């Protein structure tokens, strides 16, 4: 299985991370053409995105004591741990660059989940890898739902919400 991760609202509160999982290698092959992002599309079209197998984390005011650059570390750990309860994850694809100091901490967390998980990351991965593009689009949809629409339909998404226990990450942050 492959896990794609991206976020919405980059470093601002609330920041919503989404992890999507698939068994399809086709969804993680690098695309030759840049993938488009769904922005400003009719809301009815966005609902099609929810056919993907995803989970999400919202980093809001309750995480204010944590450096927002560490959200990525927690998100990768939580998605890996959560999806590993059902699936064997081979590789994680994360949009954005990861600092060397963060990478070391992420790999230490992943070693507790499964030492064989590979991590791929990079700038604009959401425009190159279909699975990461889906995570980006779902994150954007959820951001609009929770923030812009004041969560009017949040009951539809709550069952996919992961609430990290920060005690699990104290030694890594």
Helices and strands in order, then pairings?
Elements: E1 2-8, E2 15-22, H1 43-46, E3 53-59, H2 71-84, E4 91-95, H3 100-113, E5 118-122, H4 130-148, H5 155-158
Parallel strand pairs: 1-4, 4-5
Antiparallel strand pairs: 1-2, 2-3
Give a brief rundown of this model.
By secondary structure, the protein is α/β, with parallel strands linked by helices.
Rounded mean pLDDT is 87
Number of folding domains?
1
State the separation between the terminal residues, measured CA to CA.
27 Å
pLDDT < 50 stretches: none
Strand coverage percent: 15-25%
What is the helix tally? 5
**Helical content class:** 25-40%
Q: What spatial form do the alpha-carbon principal axes imply?
A: globular
Rg is: 15 Å
User: Judging by the overall fold, what is the CATH architecture?
Assistant: 2-Layer Sandwich
Largest sheet: 5 strands, mixed
Secondary-structure-derived class: alpha/beta
User: Which homologous superfamily in CATH is the superfamily?
Assistant: Ribonuclease H-like superfamily/Ribonuclease H
Structure notes:
By secondary structure, the protein is of the alpha/beta class. The chain contains five helices and five strands; from the N terminus they run E-E-H-E-H-E-H-E-H-H. Helix 2 runs parallel beside helix 3 (100-113). The longest helix has 19 residues, at 130-148.
């Amino acid at each position: 299985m492959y896990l794609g991760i991206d976020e919405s609202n980059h470093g601002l509160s609330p920041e919503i991370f989404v992890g999507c999982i698939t068994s399809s290698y086709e969804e993680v092959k690098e695309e030759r053409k840049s993938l488009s992002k769904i922005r400003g599309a009719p809301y009815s079209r966005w609902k099609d995105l929810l056919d993907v197998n995803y989970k999400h984390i919202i980093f809001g005011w309750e995480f204010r004591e944590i450096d927002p650059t560490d959200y990525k570390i927690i998100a990768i750990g939580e998605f890996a741990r959560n999806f590993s309860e059902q699936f064997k994850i081979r590789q994680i694809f994360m949009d954005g660059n990861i600092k060397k100091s963060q990478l070391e901490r992420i790999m230490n967390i992943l070693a507790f989940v499964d030492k064989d998980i590979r991590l791929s990351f990079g700038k604009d991965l959401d425009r190159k890898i279909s699975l990461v593009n889906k995570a980006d689009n779902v994150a954007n949809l959820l951001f609009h739902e929770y923030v812009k629409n004041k969560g009017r339909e949040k009951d539809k998404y709550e069952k996919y919400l992961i609430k990290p226990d920060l005690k699990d990450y104290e030694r890594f942050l």
